[in-house]
Structures are given as C-alpha cells and as structure tokens.
Amino acid sequence: MSKLKTESRSWNFFNWYYFCMGMASLLALTIVVYIQDNISWGWGLGIPTIAMGISLAAFILGSSLYKKIKPGGSPYVRVAQVIVAAVKKRKVDVPSDHSALYENRQLDAGISTNGRLMHSNQFKTKQTKPMATSNSPRVEELKTVVRLLPIRAAAILLVASHSHLHSFTIQQARTMDRHLSPSFQIPPATMSIFSTLTVLTALPLYERLFVPFARRFTKNPVGITCLQRMGIGYSINILASIVSAFIEIKRKNLARQRNLLDRPTDVIPISVFWLVPQYCLHGLAEVFMSVGHLEFLYDQSPESMRSTAAALYWIAIAMGNYVSTLMVSLVHKYSGKKSNWLPDRNLNRGRLENYYWLVTGLQVVNLVYYVICAWFYTYKPVDEVTEIESGDEDVESDNNTKPLSK
C-alpha cells in the first residue's frame, strides 16, 4: 500500500491488527480457560485447533487478493555488499553531484516497489565508481535500517518496565480481597484481563475519536505521527509505574495497621480492584506505544526488509523481558538481606515500591533518550509512484516521506 493510499484510508491496519490480537487474548483468558476448567481439556484444546483451521482456510481463500512480489534476492547480501564497498572506498571523496552516484533502477526495483529510495546525506559513504555493490538505492537501504535501531532500542526498557504485571502484581493480588461475591473470587492471574479490555476499548476510540480530533490541530491525515504516538505511550507508562508504587504503599500500610506484615498468606482488607488503574494505564500505553512502534518499523523500513522490521519489534519484546529478569536479579542480590526490596516469600516485608520507583526513574531516562532520537530522526526519503503512472515513473513524495530538517 502506497503512502498516498494510506493517507486516504478511513481505518488503520495496525490498530485493527492489534485489536484482533487483543480479542484473541481475551477469548483465550476467559472462554477457553473456563471450558478447560469446567468442561474438559479435550474441548479446551479442540476449540483453538478448530479456530486455527478456520484461520488457515481464510488465509488460503484470501491469497488471491494479496499483492505478490517476486523474490529479488536476499537483502542481507546487499547490506553486506554495501558495508564491504564502503570499507574499500573509505578514502574516496564523495562527489558533490549526487547524480554521479551509480544507480540501476531495474536491478534494485525490489528495494522499494512503491517508489524509489532517494539519496540522503546522513551516514555518508564513499562511492564514485559504477559498482553494483555500492549503488545509491542499496546504500540508502542500509541507512534506513541503521536509522531505525536507536528508536527500536528505546522500546526495550518499556517492555522491561511492565513485565512485573505478570509477576509481582499477581503476588500483590494474592494478598488482597478478590471477592466479587461471597462464593466467587477473581483468580490473581486473570487480572491481566483489564489490560486487554483497555486495549480493546481504547483502539476503536483512538481510531474514531482521537484521530479526527488531533487532525483538526495537526492537519495530519493520521492525526499524529508514529513518533509522537510512541512518545505519548512512553509518558503514560511512566504514570503507570508511579501509580503502581503508590498502590503498593497503600497495601503495605493497611497490612501494618492490621498487624499482617508477618502473615504473608493472610488476606489484607483492601480490594484487588485497586490494581486495576495500573493495568488500564499499561493497556493504554500499549495502544499508543506498541501499535505506533509496529507501524513505524513497517512504514520506515525498506520494503525489501519489512519482515525484518516486524522481527525487530518482537526481538525488542524478548530483549525487554530479559532486561527485566536481569533487573530483578540485580535488585534482589544487592538490595540487602534484612530489608530486601524483593524478598523470596513475604512480599509484605519487601520494598516493592522502591523497585517501582527505580523502574520509573529508568523510564524517565529512557523517555529523554527517545525524545532525542526522535528529534534527530530522518524520515525515509522516497519518491512514490502513483497508480496513474503505471509505467513506474517517479513522482515527488509528500512532506511525510521527505527527510526532516531539524
């Protein structure tokens, strides 16, 4: 889909993609789990299998509607060739006339099927001779990937900052009043359903209310840019960590008042729904940051490497979980034995709120880092091709695809 088509659409693919993922998680956490616990594991495993079969059939039946691109060789080979050529030509002066740079549009048509990557002065390389291993589109392909890495790196700490929702927050929930009725309690692990519900609620509201509202001020067809959307997500996540710290302070104060600090298995008279705000804030942060991050990587990566860009998104999530594990291990090891922040058994005697303050401080530093990276980020320069020009002639791109001059 070209940029021109994207701006004229009335919906956002990535919002609905994330919405469908959230709906699948909601069904898995509620209906499927209920069937497994109350009916049988056979049906509990059979229903997801049937759903996968339906998904596969829909994928096959819809394959005729997909835009198929013929394989054009591995982009990693081109990246390696550019790096080798740049090293070999490191002492060669760059010509002042960019038209003197070697370019073969037919050879490199697969790099950008909706247009042509234009030359940029960022990350200057040495190239004067007509060598296929160092032509301009291939150099720009590598530059585009390098530009993404600092923005992508900022997502790692964000993932690490809310991984406690699947560990410490569940431990907190175990010590709180989880009754919805005298005979029914909310399982601690299902508290994450509130994040999912927030995502499912906020995504349509973002698409139908926030985007038209923001469009009035920004004049941007999509409301705000991906970088702005991600920045809002980072800010909301900081607020979520602050709320987490205050809720833990309140929980421990009540435990102290009722002399329950040394009785970790007893229920503290505080409703588990005090944990809902942090779940909702983390879900709202996902709506802005996670969806914006995925769309940004897809939009700003070379078309030949969009699958790699999607992989970078999931790699950032994996690295964030590893960083979270490292943080917890270091805090547990060096926060002392008598007043350990993250004790092994009795959370009431811990200092979990201090861990949340530490996470908040790291996120503030991460937000500053992200703002600096976003400020100096140069958008992918592309000359797009319109449908009218079926002969693949180049037309000038709009402001959103030109390099930003800071």
Quick take:
This protein is mainly alpha-helical.
Textual characterization of the structure:
This protein is mainly α and 406 residues long. The protein has a single domain (3-54, 143-383), classed as MFS general substrate transporter like domains (Growth Hormone, Chain: A), CATH 1.20.1250.20. It has helices spanning 3-8, 13-38, 41-61, 75-88, 136-161, 168-174, 193-218, 226-257, 276-300, 306-334, 352-375, and strands at residues 115-117, 176-177, 179-181, 184-185, 268-271, 382-384. The strands form three sheets. It has a two-stranded antiparallel sheet. Strands 2-5 form a two-stranded parallel sheet. It is globular. The two termini are 28 Å apart. Residues 1-10, 125-134 and 386-406 have low confidence and may be disordered. InterPro entries: MFS_trans_sf (IPR036259), POT_fam (IPR000109). Belongs to the major facilitator superfamily. Phosphate:H(+) symporter (TC 2.A.1.9) family. Belongs to the major facilitator superfamily. Proton-dependent oligopeptide transporter (POT/PTR) (TC 2.A.17) family. It is a multi-pass membrane protein.
Topology:
Blueprint (H helix, E strand, L loop, with lengths): L2 H6 L4 H26 L2 H21 L13 H14 L26 E3 L18 H26 L6 H7 L1 E2 L1 E3 L2 E2 L7 H26 L7 H32 L10 E4 L4 H25 L5 H29 L17 H24 L6 E3 L22
Parallel strand pairs: 2-5
Antiparallel strand pairs: 1-6, 3-4
Helix pairs in contact: 2-3, 2-7, 5-9, 5-10, 5-11, 7-9, 8-9, 8-11, 9-10
